[in-house]
Design goal:
With 138 residues, the chain is mainly alpha-helical. It has one domain (3-133). It is built from four helices and no strands. The longest helix is centred in the middle third of the chain and has 30 residues, at 41-70. The chain starts with a helix and ends in a 5-residue tail after the last helix.
Amino acid sequence: MNIFVKVLVGIGSSASIGFGIWHFFVPRMWNWFSFIDTKATELVIAIRAINVFFSLSLVLIGILNILLVYGDKSNRYSIIVVLAATCILWLTRLMMQMIYPQGTFNPILQNGMLSAFIIINLCYIISLWCVAAQKITN
């Protein structure tokens, strides 16, 4: 695997894993549940479950990308499939930040998130393009 692709996937995946780990603690840090009626217990449970699923997904996707790109057992097809799925997920997050920005109460936070999502997307999209453009040798 191209060293450039390994570096880009390493950066994007490290950021994905970091966001995933960080997101496990976000509800408590930002006191999410104080904004919800205490009688809405099912809503609290649902938000907690979605956040855990989301956080774990980010960590696992980051690890999966690293294992595929750095491993010697993966093939070009599997790398393309996982990188494409990762690109779609991060591109969706970037678009959501552009259309419905989070962190609007603090321009540094809002623009920092936007910048991070752009960088992560570029790491994965460029990696995908490089892997897909490789000539296949038999």
